[in-house]
Amino acid sequence: MARFDPAAIRAQFPILATGPDGKRVHYLDNAASAQMPQAVLDAVIRFETTQRANVHRGVHRLAEAATNAYDGARAAVARYLGVTPDGIVFTSGTTAAINTVAHALGETLSAGDEIVISELEHHGNIVPWQMLAQRRGLVLRALPVTAEGTIDLTALDRVVTKKCRLIALAHASNVTGAVLDPAPVAAAARAMGARVLLDGAQRIPHGPLDLLALGCDFYAFSGHKMFAPHGIGVLWGRPDLLAALPPFLGGGGMIEQVTLERTTYATPPRRFEAGTPPIGAAIGLAAAVDWIAGLDWQAATEHEKRLTGRILDGLSAITGAHVIGPTGLQGRLGVVSVVLDGAHPHDVSQILDTHNVACRGGHHCAQPLHARFGVNGSTRASLAPYNGDDDVDAFLAGLADAAARLR
Amino acid sequence: MARFDPAAIRAQFPILATGPDGKRVHYLDNAASAQMPQAVLDAVIRFETTQRANVHRGVHRLAEAATNAYDGARAAVARYLGVTPDGIVFTSGTTAAINTVAHALGETLSAGDEIVISELEHHGNIVPWQMLAQRRGLVLRALPVTAEGTIDLTALDRVVTKKCRLIALAHASNVTGAVLDPAPVAAAARAMGARVLLDGAQRIPHGPLDLLALGCDFYAFSGHKMFAPHGIGVLWGRPDLLAALPPFLGGGGMIEQVTLERTTYATPPRRFEAGTPPIGAAIGLAAAVDWIAGLDWQAATEHEKRLTGRILDGLSAITGAHVIGPTGLQGRLGVVSVVLDGAHPHDVSQILDTHNVACRGGHHCAQPLHARFGVNGSTRASLAPYNGDDDVDAFLAGLADAAARLR
Amino acid sequence: MSDDLYQQAITTLAKAATGAGKLEHPDACETVDNPLCGDRVTMDVELTDNRIARLAHDVRGCLLCRAAASAIGSRAPGRTAGEIVQVRAGLQAMLKLCTVDPIDGWPELTAFQPVAAHKSRHDCVLLPFEALIRALDRAAY
Amino acid sequence: MSDDLYQQAITTLAKAATGAGKLEHPDACETVDNPLCGDRVTMDVELTDNRIARLAHDVRGCLLCRAAASAIGSRAPGRTAGEIVQVRAGLQAMLKLCTVDPIDGWPELTAFQPVAAHKSRHDCVLLPFEALIRALDRAAY
Ligand SMILES: Cc1ncc(COP(=O)(O)O)c(C=O)c1O
Ligand SMILES: Cc1ncc(COP(=O)(O)O)c(C=O)c1O
Questions:
Q1: Residue A118 beta carbon below 6 angstroms from any ligand 2 atom
Q2: Distance from CA of D120 to the nearest CA of B (A)
Q3: Which residues have a Cβ under 8 Å from the Cβ of A19 and sit 6 or more positions away?
Q4: pLDDT tens digit sequence for A88-142
């Protein structure tokens, strides 16, 4: 294959086009929300203009088309993940997916049971467990984080006890970019009879994965970080486990029979999809999955890795710049968070904006992790396949400028 | 003003255009999901192609544009409803909105407290309360339904006791079309110190309302029934009440400060918006609200009422056709559900489909109401301003055909 | 054409309602719901030598569902559970894969071919078979 | 131009950090957070005859926030709570309504005009004023 060409990919994203001023945005905020290719937008437009209807309860041709498209979206996501559609629950995002497990699985837990998270989790994988712990008298424990910004798996022995019912960890960190090795986690959980949930929000935009090989019981992710609309996400659960869990939200579509006295519930995944789902967004997600599957991920991964190396190299030349996370290229994704001595991340990203660079500054919804490193926030550059050397160079130039001006 | 022209409105809806075969869909399934005008689609496309980013936590120009658009959407919805934006919580729909109250308000209730609903509620306003009652040992009571398909308010005295903490009723029924008079409900609630939630899913697509004049504490509705995308909805709550409620879902955006030990929460509405919101859909909802506000609702209401009369008159000529709901035009919306003796609603709507009429057949997520009338389902025609006499006539002709063929 | 769904053959089959009713002493009785539409089929069976001796069905459902139950009422007696499973497989193929082969010994099932185009209605046709097979499973114990 | 945000005046103001520190015996001490970015301002005040006698601020925040606190450090002493509320109102108008009038007695606040174009940064500038006004309210009791 020829050299990977990010410009050819970028050409599919209207928002990344060069403007009349000859400039374009260097979009390095992909870990917050990735951009949307025309193919995904077209799928959404097609739904709204040719198939729009509510699903599941109508037999007219639009309802049938909408239902087929929605069921087809579930099948497409399942196919991409190598799982069966009955394990795919559509939610409004990662946060809703994790809250669903916190409530449904939570109903089966009792006082004294333990949940294990880590110090590097996104608030979306901390707060639901804190709230559950409070509701049901559970104990929340956390694996520490190494100086390299990875979850310290040597602590598994100590932190995961016989009382552990669930280990919930980020498959990849949204701050350090570190990718978890799920095997020891799954082994530790299995030894104690606990379940494993992986928060895949950051892993999923970086290419195909063999979900069943991870050894987890639940996997959560969001559409908007993988080139799809906001407001759609997925909770995958092992079908036998989902079937054993009580529902979470109540409403239309998740029931079998309703009387004023008593309700029986549908089987999964419908049991966990109360009310009208985000139909257009689910169809957009399926288009995004198809779009992702069409990329050469061996080349794209190499490309992202090379750009990550370029960022790390460039940073080492900026005095006062420190990376929170692995300093090497192993076991990480193209997410790099930087602390600039004496400079506030909001000021840094504001100055980067004047260089047409879109980066996120702040705590990235990971306050405990930043506290671990003794800072309040960082400036994060995160990659997608459409990013090129020019994006990285603009980032580095902007950062050097910020360093000069803010110190 | 000239006579109301539904064709001019219809022209703004790509899906309602006449096809190459000279036919177009007679879309009478608006109570399930209304169609989307080009203006709403354009607003969504504009967001995805010029402003797309995550909100609230970024300072680069796309994040700022997305945040302004999202905050602007909240302000637009608030303005339309005549309330302040701090009472507008974006959810994924009516069902999510009602579940939010069931959990947040539910946390403040104790065993023996009573919740009052009615026999005509949508499952989305039944099941969350049943589940809450089970979780916390509450008592669920229901107001009966009259032979005319309205909530029997003469039973308020009997059903609403001193133990009542909440009355949750449909502002308009999705089956009978009956519109609730909220004043006696609010008075009964106030007398007992209870709150009032109105499920406005069916009322909201039929023109402006003076929300504060209703006397309720919470109001819930969905975007997809008011010409906006699926996957967005609103929970309005009286700001002082929202401020006193604990959060429901946990995650990013709804926090103030997170440590592994303890979390403090943001003020409403953010407290109730955990995780990345459905940004594009919220922007679509704002465009839908603007679009609705641009209609002449005095004329549109007259028009819908005239068409409703045309349906009711036509039905009286079909032997074996019975309306579930008010047989007159007072206190109702353009939602008409029909039982055809000896015919199953799915067969009826399938035959209607051959007449290019899109109608919903089934229980419409209101099994208790259908049980009240001794049937399993009905065939429902529901109107929007783009419907015309031809749509109604096609429906009546199709229904007569179904009656002839299925009996 | 969706219109074909309600061709004479289906209507006649449904109205015949062969086998409708209850058995007094069934070996098994199973009820299956279609939660999407609230339809429900109850199937009573009596077995003799592993063959269906008698059956009766009670259907709260649409015309398609009633027609399928009626076909069962006239064709299932005398069959084994294995044969019924095969018939259902053929019917499923007709609906999901749009096969047009007649199903051996059950000529009236051909009338369901147009349903293939309407995915939301497949379960209506299959529900009585599902109930029958569950009842046969139960009776086998 | 966003660039203007970091003009020399702002940087100088922030680096001067006038009034940074703690008071030993404040009449009131208030801490205010910006939950969106985790920034935090603590303001100590001492009043004499309803006027600010001394103040000190402790800022964990961005350059804009530090610059605003520094302006307060140099200009607030001697003022009444009412005067501070008026200054904040002027600053809010500058940011939200893009007014360009200088604020009487606080000329350095003019440097914040370019922030008007960046809604996400308004609170950075206003946070120290919010903290000061809360501390003054508290001290008044
Ligand atoms: C009266 C009523 N309440 C609640 C709902 C549930 O709305 P959604 O499915 O959009 O959550 C609906 C519509 O389906 C409805 O008509
Ligand atoms: C690791 C991780 N987990 C969870 C989330 C929450 O995702 P969402 O906001 O889409 O629900 C995010 C993204 O914000 C994330 O990066």
A1: no
A2: 6
A3: none
A4: 999 999 999 999 999 999 999 999 999 999 999 999 999 999 999 999 999 999 9
Domain count, chain B: 2
Q: Residue written as tokens 């007649």?
A: C102
Q: Which of A35, A99, A258 sits opposite B368 (nearest CB)?
A: A258
Nearest CA in chain D to B256: D35
Of B141, B140, B149, nearest in space to B175 by CA: B149
For residue B58, how far is its CA from the centre of ligand 2 (angstroms)? 15
- Is residue A35 included in any domain, yes or no? no
Judge contact between C41 and C126, C-beta under 8 A: no
Instruction: Look up the domain containing A233 and give its range.
Output: 42-293
> Does domain D3-139 match CATH 3.40.50.360?
no
Q: Is residue B1 part of a domain?
A: no
d(CA C86, CA D101): 86
Cβ A232–B230 below 8 Å, yes or no?
no
Comparing CB atoms, the residue among A57, A64, A270 nearest residue C118 is A64
- A67 and C33 within 8 Å at the Cβ level: the answer is no
User: CB–CB of C119 and A64 under 8 A?
Assistant: yes
Amino acid at A382: S
What pLDDT does residue D2 have?
42
Closest CA to B170 of B110, B129, B109, B112: B129
Q: Are residues A260 and A307 in the same domain?
A: no
Active site residue B164: no
- Tens digits of per-residue pLDDT, A158-209? 999 999 999 999 999 999 999 999 999 999 999 999 999 999 999 999 999 9
**Residue B276, CB half-sphere, CA atoms under 13 Å: how many?**
33
Q: Is the CB of B95 under 6 A from ligand 1?
A: yes
Same domain, A128 and A236: yes
Question: What is the model's pLDDT at position B2?
Answer: 54
Residue A22 identity (one-letter amino acid) = G
pTM of the model: 0.96
Are B214 and B328 in a shared domain? no
Contact B174, B366 (CB under 8 A): yes
* Structure confidence at residue A22 (pLDDT): 87
**What residue of C is the nearest CA neighbor of A263?**
C35
Tokens of A307: 């750009």
Q: What is the DSSP letter of B400?
A: H
Q: Are residues A161 and A289 in the same domain?
A: yes
